[in-house]
Request: fold
Amino acid sequence: MKTIKLCLAVSAGLFFMFSCSTNKQAELDKLKQQQLEIKDKIINLESKLSTDPKDTLNPEKFKFVGIKEISSSTFDHFIRVQGKLDGDENAAVFAEAPGTITSKFADVGDKVIKGQVLAQIDDQQYLSQMQGLESQYKFASDLYDKQKRLWDQKIGSEVQYLQSKTNKEALEKQIASLKQQVDKFKIKSPITGTIEECNIKVGSVVSPDPRSAAYRVLAFKNLKVSAEVSEAYSAKVNVGDKLVVIFPDINKQYDTRVDFVSKYINPVNRTFMIETKLLDDFSNLKANMIAIVQINDYHADNAIEVPMNVIQTDKDGSYVYVVRSKEKYNAAFKQPVVLGTTYNGVAEILNGLKTGDKIISVGYQELVDGEYIRF
Reply:
């Protein structure tokens, strides 16, 4: 009996050992099979990676951008200042003597000629003096004529003749001087034109005050626009420079040139005066109208210019992205540029770009140097 149990135990141990050995072999075989499969995958991937990278790119996934082709054009820079419209014959008329207005002969809108009397100031006091002097002069003139006739006949004394002549001439001078005084009581137009302003009425009191004009007479011709320009531009603005004069209130623009540049710097605001004459249509223009004056202080022919917003900067300076070929596709590359003058959102490029280059104008913000693009 013991022998049988012993045999069974040995048989069970041998079976267990055989079974374990079989499982390990199977597991080993399985791992070897997996190894072969992984090796095949590695070889396959290495094969794919060893091929040309361009064959694995998908153009549909390239970043979409907008481009602008560079062309040459004229580049102008303007200095912008505010001016006003005026005329060579825009006259403020002042009273030359104090007094009360007794008569007014012209009003706003009337056309007048040079020397025409516009209003009369009370001059009665001087007229009374004039009457007295004229009476004296008549007597002195008659006396002189008699003395002269007698002296021509060698009758009478030379002293009497000379005295009568002196009296007559003295009265003539007094009358002439008084007439000049009386004439100052007449307010006259210094030019031929139209009355644009009247600040007096009969009974009002006037005086020779330069702050209070009685009339304004305007001859709307020989118009000019004057403007004050900062001293900083004194070396850049010259007679003959191109000007653009804009009247924003009536939406009119005139192309003209600088006709006058002052050599005087105003010490109060550090500006100098420029003027330009207007020779075109004057309709709708009014004296003292606001004008925007654009002075062309820089001009370049065949200039390369790009919008300021596409220019970026880094530690090396300014650059733009340009389109160049990479393999068989388009790619964005950094292109350093040297900037010149800038104006109105546009920059002149002195170096770095040429006609025909394509710069990226849309979608440039997040590009990487050498990145593939489409447009």
